[in-house]
Design brief:
Length: about 220
């Protein structure tokens, strides 16, 4: 395992999946368990970093020696990331962020009405936190790492996403109902804005996390 090669560095990591409420009892969500983000937090702390972990709806216990901030929605996640980022050497967005949220929030539980069709759910766009952070870096030497959850054309979609989001590294992983989400293992290709491509074979989420930190340490110089 690596030595304390992240000592003196502050890393900000997001983990989990945002929930976008429809009413007091319902939300639109996704299958992220937060395990990949927590693995990044544990491994960064083990390598000496000061870690701020911003978690959305994981229910996981706080990793030792890590500052944990809890959020629910994409808008709250954005606020927490923007608050922590100015002081960070590295920002890693491992959270699964909802691209859209319901336009309206019903303050009372939405009721079904006899004989009536359900009301359609109108969605509006959520802010793109990764693109915003990458475009507007509080420190020029700050590194921004994204994740891409893809179900098909994984590499082509990953390259396009890397360019669109403007981050330094993009960890492209394949997801499905029973793939990656919630599992202890992952498999990925880490794409660099410099054209690099680092395949990470199927293995524990910690192993992928350590490869991400290796690439980060190399780039921090
Ligand atoms: O949590 P686990 O069960 O361990 O599963 C891990 C994981 C599959 C959730 C993780 O490895 C992963 O891929 N996370 C990113 C999921 C995702 O939202 O991918 P995306 O392709 O939709 O988004 C691309 C990137 O933009 C991500 O870094 C995401 O955090 C960011 N994003 C997306 C939308 C948005 N509105 N704002 C963002 O910042």
């Amino acid at each position: 395992t690596a030595g304390p090669d992240l000592a003196g560095r502050h890393v900000v990591i997001s983990a989990g999946g945002t929930r976008e409420p429809l009413d007091p009892v319902r939300f639109l969500g996704n299958r992220s368990s937060g395990k990949q983000g927590y693995a990044l937090a544990r491994t960064a702390a083990a390598r000496g970093a000061r870690v701020t972990l911003i978690e959305a709806n994981t229910g996981l216990p706080d990793p030792a020696g890590v500052d944990v901030v809890r959020v629910g929605t994409a808008v709250q996640l954005r606020e927490a990331v923007l608050k922590a980022a100015p002081d960070a050497d590295v920002v890693v967005m491992a959270a699964a962020v909802a691209d859209f949220r319901p336009e309206t929030y019903a303050t009372g539980k939405i009721k079904k009405k006899d004989g009536q069709d359900p009301e359609p759910i109108v969605l509006v766009r959520n802010p793109d936190i990764l693109a915003e952070i990458a475009a507007d870096r509080p420190r020029p030497e700050q590194l921004v790492v994204g994740f891409a959850a893809e179900t098909d054309d994984v590499l082509a979609n990953g390259r396009a996403k890397l360019a669109r989001k403007g981050c330094d590294l993009l960890v492209v992983n394949e997801v499905g109902e029973r793939k990656t989400f919630g599992s202890e293992e992952n498999e990925a290709v880490v794409l660099g804005a410099d054209g690099s491509e680092t395949p990470v074979p199927h293995g524990p989420k910690e192993a992928l996390a350590d490869t991400v930190w290796d690439l980060v340490v190399h780039r921090l110089g």
